[in-house]
Write a structure and sequence with these properties.
The complex is a heterodimer of chains A (179) and B (303).
Chain A (H helix, E strand, L loop, with lengths): L6 E8 L2 E8 L4 H8 L18 E4 L2 E4 L12 E3 L12 H8 L9 H14 L5 H7 L11 H20 L4 H8 L2
Parallel strand pairs in A: 1-5
Antiparallel strand pairs in A: 1-2, 3-4, 3-5
Chain B lengths: L6 E4 L3 H11 L3 E4 L5 H6 L7 E4 L9 E3 L5 E5 L4 H5 L2 H5 L1 H7 L5 H4 L4 H7 L6 H6 L2 E8 L2 E6 H4 E3 L2 E2 L6 E8 L8 E10 L8 E10 L2 E10 L6 E2 L1 H7 L6 H11 L13 H23 L9 E2 L1
Parallel strand pairs in B: 1-3, 2-3, 11-15
Antiparallel strand pairs in B: 4-5, 5-10, 6-7, 6-10, 8-9, 11-12, 12-13, 13-14
Helix pairs in contact in B: 10-11, 11-12
Classes of the chains: A alpha+beta (179), B alpha+beta (303).
């Protein structure tokens, strides 16, 4: 085994801002986000691709960033939970989670928010079954999930309304959908 | 956790990757979607000296199917989520059963069909499904291209016919030969504890019906042996007979002894055999309903 992984130069757009970095090839996307960019909203839970706390959007699709090498984001776009609120205004999905008390400790919440982004960009009117399937890869050990389902169902309505009005939240969902 | 250090090589084409892998030797590994290899490397269960990255090879992500539905071709780097959303999956529901239930959403957004087939995990979902049809693996290696039937491709657990440096380029699936007026239906059901884990047991069924008579059938079990198991005794219980409750139950019963499951955290051997029986029965029923034109939604089930 070599002593060090090769250095690789990558260019990645994270939450709309372009970053150029020299990284070790073995660096995981979640560590690039948290350690190199200091965006610590993306959490490491199980670190084994199970819990989904590290979920981010890579080129518009949800991925577990603990199971993606940062080099695979080269030339791509990443959206983390920090990319949702605009000008101090919560994204409608975040507001719905807040209003429905869809979190207790909050550790899993960034991942659930990003999984919800992925779902609503592709399916603006999800059924309860669609919602259950969409967050099957995100574990919450506090809430028992009911409030999360309620929040996502409500978020769907809010994002659709925002999309119709062309306001914040609608645009974010539409840009993810465009991929 | 981090993967151990490795040398990183970005391939521009499969041909280049094949040459790289051959030159680097057997401690080099190809990397596709990484949904199995990256966790294995983090847990230090895999420690390749070199990774040959296929992720930036263009032109390998597609699902093509002819209008008559005769042949479907999957590029090796096609992600499970793309297959689930494809026209081919709408046309052949057994593909949707499989693709839309592998892992969870995030895994389906990264994992590839070529990576899954080449890994040959005993609990992998694609192999039992593809084996119920006529499936060939188009490979590219340092010496050129060749085509291997899937049934000759999977040799053992985690072991395929791929030689040094050889890679999967394309997976070609065809409906088995059938007469005009005969109708084909398929179904795949995998039972697992939750989204993220492999199946405890799975069953894939493809029926060719002539009226109410089962003219031809293929039944495969997954996750209950080192490789997918063709349950020929179950197929014989149906072939040439009308599909009735009795013949379906006889086929399902015959599937009970088809596998050779190991007891583990997913369940005892007896439990897995009983589960396989139940899955075969349901998969036959759903395949038959689909062959008759009914829309039936089924996917992986959590228990």
């Amino acid at each position: 085994m070599p002593e060090r992984s090769d250095g690789v130069s990558i260019s990645v757009t994270v939450n709309g801002r372009r970053h150029q970095a020299e990284i070790e090839a073995r660096l995981l996307l979640v560590d690039f986000i948290r350690e190199n960019l200091n965006l610590t909203g993306t959490h490491i839970g199980c670190d084994t691709s199970f819990c989904g706390a590290c979920t981010v959007l890579l080129n518009g699709s949800s991925v577990k960033s603990c199971t993606v090498l940062a080099v695979h984001a080269a030339g791509g776009e990443v959206t983390t939970v920090e990319g949702l609120a605009k000008d101090g205004e919560l994204h409608p999905i975040q507001q719905a989670f807040k209003d429905h008390y869809a979190l207790q400790c909050g550790y899993c919440t960034p991942g659930l928010l990003m999984s919800t982004c992925h779902l609503l960009a592709r399916n603006p009117n999800p059924t309860e079954k669609d919602i259950r399937k969409a967050i099957a890869g995100n574990c919450c050990r506090c809430t028992g999930y009911q409030n999360i389902y309620d929040a996502i169902a409500d978020a769907a309505a809010r994002v659709s309304a925002a999309r119709a009005a062309g306001t914040h939240g609608g645009r974010a969902a539409a840009s993810a959908e465009a991929r | 956790m981090h993967p151990g250090p490795f040398r990183y090589h970005r391939a521009a084409s499969l041909e280049e990757a094949a040459v790289m892998l051959q030159q680097l030797g057997e401690d080099a590994r190809p990397l596709a979607g990484g949904q199995s290899l990256v966790p294995l490397m983090k847990l230090r269960l895999a420690g390749p000296t070199d990774l040959v990255d296929l992720a930036f090879v263009p032109g390998l992500s597609y699902v093509r199917h002819e209008d008559d539905g005769g042949e479907i071709r999957f590029g090796a780097l096609t992600r499970h989520a793309e297959i689930a959303d494809s026209g081919a999956a709408a046309r052949f529901p057994i593909l949707h059963d499989c693709a839309a239930g592998i892992g969870d959403v995030q895994v389906r957004n990264r994992g590839t069909i070529g990576g899954s087939v080449a890994e040959a995990d005993p609990s992998g979902d694609w192999a039992p499904v593809l084996l119920t049809h006529v499936t060939e693996i188009r490979c590219v290696g340092p010496g050129g291209e060749r085509t291997v039937a899937l049934r000759d491709f999977i040799l053992d657990a985690y072991t395929t016919a791929l030689g040094p440096g050889e890679l999967v380029r394309e997976i070609v699936m065809r409906a088995p030969p059938h007469e005009d007026g005969e109708r084909i239906g398929g179904a795949y059901i995998a039972a697992k504890r939750c989204a993220q884990v492999y199946a405890t047991a799975s069953a894939a069924v493809r029926l060719t019906l002539a009226g109410d008579v089962c003219r031809d059938v293929a039944i495969y079990l997954g996750a209950v042996a080192l490789t997918p198991v063709e349950v020929t005794a179950a197929a014989e219980a149906l072939r040439g007979r009308a599909l009735t409750r009795e013949t379906i139950e006889a086929a399902a019963d015959a599937a009970r002894s088809g596998g050779d499951p190991q007891p583990d955290m997913r369940g005892s051997a007896e439990y897995k055999c009983a589960l396989a029986t139940a899955l075969v029965k349901r998969a036959i029923e759903i395949a038959a309903r689909r062959a008759r034109g009914e829309q039936v939604e089924v996917s992986h089930e959590y228990a």
